[in-house]
Amino acid sequence: MRHRVKGFKLGRTASHRTAMQRNMAASLIEHERITTTVQKAKALRPFIEKLVTISKESSVHNRRRVFAALRNKEAVSKLFEVIGPRFQERPGGYCRILKLSKPRLGDAGERAIIEFVERTPAEAEVAADAE
User: Fold this and answer.
1) pTM summary value
2) In what order do the strands lie in the sheet with 111-116?
């Protein structure tokens, strides 16, 4: 039984898991869409959604809270200047996970894309041109 067993361990130590989560969150904020495994995407979603909720209100205290979780100045500034205001009216559900059909080469792990739900029109055009 899994009573009171919360979260994903992902077969890693606590420090490795924390570092991986910070790096993946910073990459998601920077690129707004990343490809990873389904399990890592499911572990990342609650982490990133809490940060987006905090970033909807810009204050020194909130910036310090987000920086303590991310440890990346560029990601924090983009989160508060671009992503937070974009989701100002949305009450939650800022990320989506799309499962990919082809497994990962090497260990055949299930792959997924995790991305933000809304994009600004300029970013949507850039993403369409890149694909």
Assistant:
1) 0.90
2) 33-37, 111-116, 95-99
- Tell me the β-bridge partners of 33: 115
The per-residue pLDDT for 14 is: 95
pLDDT of 102 higher than 80: yes
The CATH number of domain 14-130, selected from 3.40.50.20, 3.30.460.20, 3.30.565.10, 3.90.1030.10 = 3.90.1030.10
**So what's the pLDDT on residue 21?**
98
CA separation, residue 20 to residues 1, 113, 121, 123 (Å): 28, 16, 30, 26
**Would you call 100 helix, strand, or coil by DSSP?**
coil
